[in-house]
Amino acid sequence: MNTLDKFKKYMITEFLSEVAPIVADHAEGATLTDAAGKTYVDAFAGISVCNAGHNNPEVVAAARAQLGKLVHCGTYLLPHAPAADLAELLAEITPTTSQPGAAVPHRLSKSFFGNSGAEANEAAMRLAKQFTGKHGFIALDGAFHGRTLATLSISGLPSRKRGGGPYMPDVSFLPAPYCYRCALGLKPESCNLACAAALEEKINFAKHSGVAALFVEPVQGEGGIIVPPKGWFAAIKKILDLHGVLLVADEVQTGFGRTGHMFAIEAEGVEPDIITLGKGIADGFPLSAMVTRPDIAAAFHPGDHLSTFGGNPVCCAAALATIHFYQRENLPAQAARKGAWLIGELRRRLENNPRVGEVRGRGLMIGVELVERAVPGAPCAPPSALNHAAPAPDAAFAKKIVKDCRERGVLIGLGGRDGNVLRIQPPLVINDAQLAQVADTLAAVLTTP
Ligand SMILES: Cc1ncc(COP(=O)(O)O)c(C=O)c1O
């Protein structure tokens, strides 16, 4: 029986039915080779994970060296150097709005280590409750924070939540700053950030439980690469501070250079109270972190919260090498340059394509929203009574495009509330020729009738 048949027979998993799966064999940088020997430009990086490139030699060497010393000891029982060094490094690089030279320049300086993004967010939820003494949460429509019961409860994607309820009570959702399909029916040039202002109402209506925290992805990933407009974060932070509600920045997907900054929130001029990290932290080794201020961290008493494998020495060693690589190669700046080129190129080549609603993104976190064919110049079909006439989403077409790209040797992802957003999130080390291949392939498959 071949690998694919074994997967189908013995594993609980799912494939996009329209996209014939390939069996991954080996990978390097932004190139992945399947079991049949065909090579692909991997423009999705294992769901936005291998930011330093597949099989980065420095990361692999660091992990190998640690493998020969200590694989596991239970980080919360026996302290070890890789976890201590990683926590110190995170405290040095976490986002801060403090002025250089300030007495406490990095306020987010205490880390909890887990294995997955969901586990980091679970930790943040519990800590926020223990610190504030409140138990309500607010999240955004279209948000994705993981697939455990609690993190699904604060996820705003019905497709991901199907069949898993009932979910946690005392969670409410704020309209996302999704300007292409504004839930309030407003236009960005005249909306006065009404979606951010709506936060105050949400907090007021949750007075019975109190709101411990607002969870936000600085750029929504699974929700379809939703980039908030300028000023949105500042507006919500002002309201949160007024009401004593914590801001949790879920940087599981946006962190570690992806959007052109080490952390996406750095572009917003606000400092979160808690930041959650995963995916790119160790270039593919399973590790996550929740990082917060010492005063908030103190709400966890010894033994309150731990994870058997969390902070595994091999994963921490890999993370240290990964972050040093990001810093030395200045990968955030590379992502900014490469992403600006690709977004510009896709906009230029697709601007008159009636199936492309919007090309958007930040750094190498890029979305192409596909819509039903709209006759140029004719009014578009409004998907909701309120919406200002964005054309209807076309998920079937998006799946076909993912398949066509794959057949032509380019791997891309899919997301969006309606499954109609192509996601381009390659390793940040992708080279210019590979980037051009991604642009050429997308332009070709999107213009082929
Ligand atoms: C923003 C965000 N948070 C949390 C998660 C969950 O991470 P994990 O799958 O590692 O639990 C994801 C995964 O896609 C994510 O994109």
Describe this structure in words.
- The chain is an alpha/beta fold and 449 residues long.
- It has two domains: 3-55 and 331-447, Aspartate Aminotransferase, domain 1, CATH 3.90.1150.10; 63-328, 3-Layer(aba) Sandwich (Aspartate Aminotransferase, domain 2), CATH 3.40.640.
- Helix content is 34%, strand content 15%.
- It contains 14 helices and 15 strands.
- It has helices spanning 3-10, 45-48, 57-67, 81-93, 117-132, 149-153, 158-161, 194-205, 232-243, 294-297, 313-328, 331-350, 395-407, 432-447, and strands at residues 24-28, 31-34, 39-42, 110-114, 136-140, 171-174, 211-216, 246-250, 274-277, 288-292, 356-362, 365-370, 410-411, 413-415, 421-424.
- A seven-stranded mixed beta sheet has the order 4-10-9-8-7-5-6, with helices on both faces.
- A hairpin with a 4-residue loop joins strand 2 and strand 3.
- It starts with a helix and ends with a helix.
- Bound molecules: pyridoxal-5'-phosphate (PLP).
- Pyridoxal-5'-phosphate (PLP) is lined by residues 47, 116-118, 121, 144-146, 217, 221-222, 250, 252-253, 278.
